[in-house]
Design a protein that fits this description.
287 residues; alpha+beta; six-stranded antiparallel beta sheet; 42% helix; disordered N terminus
Length: 287
Protein backbone atom coordinates (compact mmCIF):
# COMPACT_ATOMS: atom_id res chain seq x y z
CA UNK A 1 0.00 0.00 0.00
CA UNK A 2 1.38 3.42 -0.94
CA UNK A 3 2.01 5.56 2.14
CA UNK A 4 0.66 9.05 2.44
CA UNK A 5 1.28 11.19 5.46
CA UNK A 6 -1.99 11.95 7.26
CA UNK A 7 -2.84 15.58 7.84
CA UNK A 8 -4.91 16.68 10.83
CA UNK A 9 -7.72 19.22 10.77
CA UNK A 10 -7.03 21.66 13.57
CA UNK A 11 -5.72 20.44 16.90
CA UNK A 12 -6.85 18.37 19.84
CA UNK A 13 -8.93 15.24 19.96
CA UNK A 14 -12.17 16.88 18.84
CA UNK A 15 -12.58 19.17 15.86
CA UNK A 16 -15.44 20.93 14.11
CA UNK A 17 -15.52 20.11 10.42
CA UNK A 18 -17.52 22.66 8.37
CA UNK A 19 -18.70 22.50 4.78
CA UNK A 20 -20.05 24.81 2.13
CA UNK A 21 -23.19 22.64 2.25
CA UNK A 22 -24.60 25.21 4.69
CA UNK A 23 -24.49 27.91 2.08
CA UNK A 24 -25.82 25.82 -0.78
CA UNK A 25 -28.67 23.74 0.67
CA UNK A 26 -31.78 24.65 2.54
CA UNK A 27 -34.42 22.19 1.48
CA UNK A 28 -36.12 24.60 -0.86
CA UNK A 29 -33.65 27.45 -1.19
CA UNK A 30 -32.37 30.27 0.95
CA UNK A 31 -29.85 30.36 3.74
CA UNK A 32 -29.85 27.94 6.62
CA UNK A 33 -28.14 27.50 9.96
CA UNK A 34 -27.42 24.16 11.55
CA UNK A 35 -26.48 23.05 15.01
CA UNK A 36 -22.97 21.62 15.37
CA UNK A 37 -23.72 19.90 18.65
CA UNK A 38 -23.06 16.19 18.62
CA UNK A 39 -25.23 13.50 20.15
CA UNK A 40 -25.73 9.79 19.49
CA UNK A 41 -25.92 7.96 16.18
CA UNK A 42 -28.73 8.29 13.69
CA UNK A 43 -32.09 6.83 14.61
CA UNK A 44 -34.17 9.96 14.22
CA UNK A 45 -37.85 10.64 13.94
CA UNK A 46 -37.58 10.79 10.16
CA UNK A 47 -37.23 7.01 9.83
CA UNK A 48 -40.38 6.36 11.87
CA UNK A 49 -42.34 9.04 10.04
CA UNK A 50 -41.10 7.59 6.76
CA UNK A 51 -42.42 4.10 7.51
CA UNK A 52 -45.75 5.46 8.74
CA UNK A 53 -46.45 7.75 5.81
CA UNK A 54 -45.12 5.48 3.09
CA UNK A 55 -47.05 2.44 4.26
CA UNK A 56 -50.14 4.45 5.22
CA UNK A 57 -50.41 6.16 1.84
CA UNK A 58 -49.93 2.98 -0.17
CA UNK A 59 -51.78 2.75 -3.43
CA UNK A 60 -52.34 -1.01 -3.35
CA UNK A 61 -52.83 -3.77 -0.83
CA UNK A 62 -49.75 -5.82 -1.68
CA UNK A 63 -46.46 -5.22 0.14
CA UNK A 64 -44.35 -5.60 -3.00
CA UNK A 65 -45.01 -3.89 -6.30
CA UNK A 66 -43.96 -4.42 -9.89
CA UNK A 67 -42.51 -2.02 -12.44
CA UNK A 68 -43.76 -0.76 -15.72
CA UNK A 69 -41.46 -1.82 -18.57
CA UNK A 70 -40.04 1.62 -19.28
CA UNK A 71 -39.40 2.30 -15.60
CA UNK A 72 -37.47 -0.93 -15.14
CA UNK A 73 -35.21 0.08 -18.02
CA UNK A 74 -34.60 3.49 -16.45
CA UNK A 75 -33.67 2.02 -13.07
CA UNK A 76 -31.45 -0.58 -14.73
CA UNK A 77 -29.56 2.36 -16.19
CA UNK A 78 -29.16 3.80 -12.70
CA UNK A 79 -27.71 0.50 -11.48
CA UNK A 80 -25.17 0.69 -14.32
CA UNK A 81 -24.23 4.21 -13.23
CA UNK A 82 -23.68 3.00 -9.67
CA UNK A 83 -21.40 0.24 -10.93
CA UNK A 84 -19.34 2.89 -12.69
CA UNK A 85 -19.18 5.21 -9.67
CA UNK A 86 -18.21 2.37 -7.35
CA UNK A 87 -14.81 2.13 -8.99
CA UNK A 88 -12.02 3.70 -6.86
CA UNK A 89 -11.05 7.17 -8.05
CA UNK A 90 -7.37 6.72 -7.14
CA UNK A 91 -4.89 4.27 -5.65
CA UNK A 92 -5.30 5.71 -2.16
CA UNK A 93 -9.04 5.00 -2.19
CA UNK A 94 -8.40 1.52 -3.54
CA UNK A 95 -5.89 0.80 -0.76
CA UNK A 96 -8.10 2.30 1.94
CA UNK A 97 -11.07 0.21 0.81
CA UNK A 98 -9.04 -2.98 1.08
CA UNK A 99 -7.71 -1.99 4.50
CA UNK A 100 -11.22 -1.21 5.81
CA UNK A 101 -12.57 -4.55 4.61
CA UNK A 102 -9.63 -6.45 6.11
CA UNK A 103 -9.99 -4.65 9.44
CA UNK A 104 -13.72 -5.41 9.60
CA UNK A 105 -12.94 -9.10 9.18
CA UNK A 106 -10.44 -8.81 12.04
CA UNK A 107 -12.96 -7.37 14.52
CA UNK A 108 -13.96 -9.95 17.12
CA UNK A 109 -17.46 -10.01 18.56
CA UNK A 110 -16.05 -10.63 22.04
CA UNK A 111 -12.80 -8.67 22.19
CA UNK A 112 -12.72 -5.82 19.68
CA UNK A 113 -16.24 -4.63 20.45
CA UNK A 114 -15.09 -3.63 23.86
CA UNK A 115 -18.10 -3.30 26.14
CA UNK A 116 -21.53 -4.83 25.57
CA UNK A 117 -23.09 -1.84 27.35
CA UNK A 118 -21.26 0.74 25.22
CA UNK A 119 -23.03 0.26 21.92
CA UNK A 120 -25.35 2.77 20.31
CA UNK A 121 -26.41 1.27 17.01
CA UNK A 122 -23.13 0.83 15.10
CA UNK A 123 -21.02 3.00 17.43
CA UNK A 124 -19.08 0.09 18.90
CA UNK A 125 -18.03 -1.12 15.45
CA UNK A 126 -17.14 2.40 14.37
CA UNK A 127 -15.04 2.89 17.52
CA UNK A 128 -13.12 -0.33 16.92
CA UNK A 129 -12.58 0.51 13.27
CA UNK A 130 -11.30 4.03 14.05
CA UNK A 131 -8.75 2.59 16.51
CA UNK A 132 -7.63 -0.06 14.02
CA UNK A 133 -7.25 2.54 11.27
CA UNK A 134 -5.12 4.65 13.61
CA UNK A 135 -2.96 1.61 14.31
CA UNK A 136 -2.53 1.23 10.55
CA UNK A 137 -1.26 4.81 10.22
CA UNK A 138 -4.41 6.60 9.04
CA UNK A 139 -5.70 9.93 10.34
CA UNK A 140 -9.18 8.55 11.04
CA UNK A 141 -11.87 9.92 13.32
CA UNK A 142 -15.47 9.41 14.33
CA UNK A 143 -17.60 12.21 12.85
CA UNK A 144 -20.90 13.16 14.44
CA UNK A 145 -23.08 15.39 12.31
CA UNK A 146 -26.33 17.03 13.36
CA UNK A 147 -28.66 19.41 11.56
CA UNK A 148 -31.84 21.22 12.51
CA UNK A 149 -35.25 21.26 10.87
CA UNK A 150 -35.45 23.61 7.90
CA UNK A 151 -38.72 24.05 6.05
CA UNK A 152 -39.97 20.59 5.12
CA UNK A 153 -36.58 18.96 5.76
CA UNK A 154 -36.53 17.11 9.10
CA UNK A 155 -33.60 17.55 11.45
CA UNK A 156 -31.36 14.60 12.13
CA UNK A 157 -27.97 13.29 13.14
CA UNK A 158 -25.51 10.73 11.86
CA UNK A 159 -22.23 9.01 12.75
CA UNK A 160 -19.58 7.96 10.26
CA UNK A 161 -15.80 7.82 9.88
CA UNK A 162 -13.59 10.12 7.89
CA UNK A 163 -9.94 9.79 6.92
CA UNK A 164 -7.85 12.84 6.04
CA UNK A 165 -4.94 12.25 3.68
CA UNK A 166 -2.47 14.28 1.65
CA UNK A 167 -3.61 14.19 -1.94
CA UNK A 168 -1.28 16.45 -3.92
CA UNK A 169 2.24 17.87 -4.00
CA UNK A 170 1.10 21.33 -2.92
CA UNK A 171 0.11 19.97 0.49
CA UNK A 172 -3.63 19.88 -0.10
CA UNK A 173 -5.68 17.21 1.62
CA UNK A 174 -8.50 14.91 0.61
CA UNK A 175 -11.28 13.73 2.89
CA UNK A 176 -12.48 10.16 2.51
CA UNK A 177 -15.80 9.05 4.00
CA UNK A 178 -16.40 5.60 5.49
CA UNK A 179 -19.99 4.57 6.19
CA UNK A 180 -20.24 1.00 7.39
CA UNK A 181 -23.99 0.53 6.92
CA UNK A 182 -24.46 2.47 3.71
CA UNK A 183 -27.42 0.67 2.14
CA UNK A 184 -29.60 1.15 5.22
CA UNK A 185 -29.99 4.85 4.35
CA UNK A 186 -31.99 3.98 1.23
CA UNK A 187 -34.41 1.28 2.36
CA UNK A 188 -38.00 2.26 1.56
CA UNK A 189 -41.39 0.69 2.12
CA UNK A 190 -43.02 -1.31 -0.67
CA UNK A 191 -40.08 -0.84 -3.04
CA UNK A 192 -40.58 -2.01 -6.63
CA UNK A 193 -38.34 -4.85 -7.75
CA UNK A 194 -36.14 -2.67 -9.91
CA UNK A 195 -35.47 -0.36 -6.97
CA UNK A 196 -34.17 -3.30 -4.98
CA UNK A 197 -31.86 -4.10 -7.89
CA UNK A 198 -30.45 -0.57 -7.70
CA UNK A 199 -30.18 -0.78 -3.92
CA UNK A 200 -28.27 -4.06 -4.06
CA UNK A 201 -25.81 -2.56 -6.54
CA UNK A 202 -24.67 -0.04 -3.91
CA UNK A 203 -21.58 -0.88 -1.86
CA UNK A 204 -22.57 -2.30 1.51
CA UNK A 205 -19.70 -0.30 3.05
CA UNK A 206 -19.01 3.07 1.47
CA UNK A 207 -15.38 4.19 1.20
CA UNK A 208 -14.69 7.21 -0.98
CA UNK A 209 -14.74 10.95 -1.49
CA UNK A 210 -17.65 13.29 -0.84
CA UNK A 211 -17.88 14.01 -4.57
CA UNK A 212 -18.48 10.37 -5.41
CA UNK A 213 -20.81 9.98 -2.43
CA UNK A 214 -23.06 12.78 -3.69
CA UNK A 215 -23.26 11.15 -7.12
CA UNK A 216 -24.61 8.00 -5.47
CA UNK A 217 -27.04 10.01 -3.33
CA UNK A 218 -28.50 11.69 -6.41
CA UNK A 219 -29.03 8.32 -8.07
CA UNK A 220 -30.76 6.86 -5.02
CA UNK A 221 -33.02 9.89 -4.57
CA UNK A 222 -34.07 9.56 -8.21
CA UNK A 223 -34.67 5.82 -7.85
CA UNK A 224 -36.68 6.27 -4.64
CA UNK A 225 -38.90 8.88 -6.28
CA UNK A 226 -39.64 6.52 -9.17
CA UNK A 227 -40.41 3.59 -6.85
CA UNK A 228 -42.79 5.63 -4.70
CA UNK A 229 -44.55 7.05 -7.75
CA UNK A 230 -45.16 3.52 -9.04
CA UNK A 231 -47.18 2.88 -5.88
CA UNK A 232 -48.95 6.27 -5.98
CA UNK A 233 -47.08 7.28 -2.85
CA UNK A 234 -45.78 10.81 -2.15
CA UNK A 235 -42.08 11.58 -2.21
CA UNK A 236 -41.28 12.69 1.37
CA UNK A 237 -38.59 15.28 2.06
CA UNK A 238 -36.44 12.82 4.05
CA UNK A 239 -35.93 10.83 0.81
CA UNK A 240 -34.67 13.89 -1.04
CA UNK A 241 -31.10 14.52 -2.11
CA UNK A 242 -30.91 17.56 0.22
CA UNK A 243 -31.76 15.47 3.28
CA UNK A 244 -29.40 12.66 2.31
CA UNK A 245 -26.60 15.13 1.65
CA UNK A 246 -27.07 16.68 5.10
CA UNK A 247 -25.98 13.45 6.76
CA UNK A 248 -22.41 13.74 5.50
CA UNK A 249 -22.04 17.42 4.59
CA UNK A 250 -23.48 19.13 7.65
CA UNK A 251 -20.87 20.52 10.07
CA UNK A 252 -19.74 17.78 12.40
CA UNK A 253 -17.58 17.14 15.40
CA UNK A 254 -14.55 14.98 14.75
CA UNK A 255 -13.50 12.67 17.60
CA UNK A 256 -10.10 11.03 17.48
CA UNK A 257 -10.38 9.72 21.04
CA UNK A 258 -13.73 8.00 21.49
CA UNK A 259 -15.59 7.54 24.75
CA UNK A 260 -18.74 5.60 23.99
CA UNK A 261 -21.96 6.45 25.77
CA UNK A 262 -23.61 3.57 27.58
CA UNK A 263 -26.73 1.92 26.16
CA UNK A 264 -27.37 -1.73 26.96
CA UNK A 265 -30.18 -2.18 24.44
CA UNK A 266 -28.15 -1.98 21.23
CA UNK A 267 -25.38 -4.55 21.66
CA UNK A 268 -27.25 -7.20 19.69
CA UNK A 269 -27.70 -4.69 16.86
CA UNK A 270 -23.92 -4.22 16.78
CA UNK A 271 -23.28 -7.96 16.70
CA UNK A 272 -25.88 -8.51 13.98
CA UNK A 273 -24.46 -5.68 11.88
CA UNK A 274 -20.90 -6.96 12.30
CA UNK A 275 -21.93 -10.41 11.07
CA UNK A 276 -23.67 -8.89 8.04
CA UNK A 277 -20.63 -6.74 7.24
CA UNK A 278 -18.32 -9.74 7.44
CA UNK A 279 -20.64 -11.64 5.11
CA UNK A 280 -20.60 -8.79 2.57
CA UNK A 281 -16.81 -8.46 2.77
CA UNK A 282 -16.30 -12.21 2.48
CA UNK A 283 -18.45 -12.26 -0.67
CA UNK A 284 -16.44 -9.39 -2.16
CA UNK A 285 -13.15 -11.16 -1.55
CA UNK A 286 -14.44 -14.31 -3.27
CA UNK A 287 -15.22 -12.45 -6.51
Amino acid sequence: MRNRTPVAIGGGGMNLVGNNWLHRRGGGGGGVEFSCRSTGSEHDLGAMVSDFLEIGSAGSDSWFSSDCDSGFSDLAYLADRISMYKQPVDQYERDLTMVVKSLILSISETSQIEKPDACINSSCIISSLVKLLHSSGYNAALCKSKWQVFGKLPGGEHEFIDVIAHENKSGGSERYIIDIDFRSHFQIARAVKSYNVVLSSLPAIYVGTLTKLKQLLQIMAEAAKYSLEQNSMPFPPWRSFSYLEAKWESPCQRFVTINSAASSSSHQHCIGLLRRLKSFVGSDFKR
